[in-house]
Design the sequence.
């Protein structure tokens, strides 16, 4: 199993960025077209992304420092729901936030697609959390299979 890490600086306080990780309107502002989120340990994490259904559960919700969820796709035999883990670590950075995404327990074959997905979605989160307009997303996975 492999790990992928991404980070991005966001011109918004951690409290603001945190809301984009735990609310349905916040999540769909930067990733996905539909979300069902119950941000408590054991609560539902469900986001539809580029035609795929990411499913898992919340493991940790520590406002405004960390959100950890299990992650996988209904359609994927390689990465079924809940088989990998995504942690969003928020660190104050002046008046902004350093957000680090740590995606663990990925099959090696899934790393390129997820790296591409996080590279697409994190800049969208930066825009949304800082109050800027976010265009309709047209991202699709690099290859046929599970997106990030």
Sequence:
């Amino acid at each position: 199993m492999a790990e992928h890490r991404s980070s991005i600086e966001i011109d918004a306080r951690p409290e603001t960025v945190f809301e984009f990780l735990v609310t349905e309107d916040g999540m769909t502002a930067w990733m996905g077209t539909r979300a069902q989120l119950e941000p408590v340990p054991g609560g539902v994490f469900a986001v539809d992304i580029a035609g795929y259904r990411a499913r898992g559960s919340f493991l940790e919700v520590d406002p405004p420092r960390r959100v950890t969820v299990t992650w996988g796709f209904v359609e994927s035999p390689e990465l079924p729901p809940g088989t990998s883990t995504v942690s969003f670590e928020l660190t104050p950075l002046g008046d902004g936030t350093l957000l680090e995404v740590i995606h663990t327990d990925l099959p090696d074959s899934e790393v390129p697609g997820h790296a591409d997905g996080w590279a697409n979605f994190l800049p969208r989160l930066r825009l949304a959390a800082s109050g800027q307009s976010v265009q309709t997303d047209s991202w699709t996975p690099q290859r046929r299979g599970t997106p990030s």
User: Anything to note?
Assistant: Residues 86 and 103 are 4 Å apart (CA to CA). The domain at 2-129 is CATH 3.30.530.20 (Alpha-D-Glucose-1,6-Bisphosphate; Chain A, domain 4). The longest strand covers residues 52-62. Helices lie at 14-22, 24-30, 111-129.
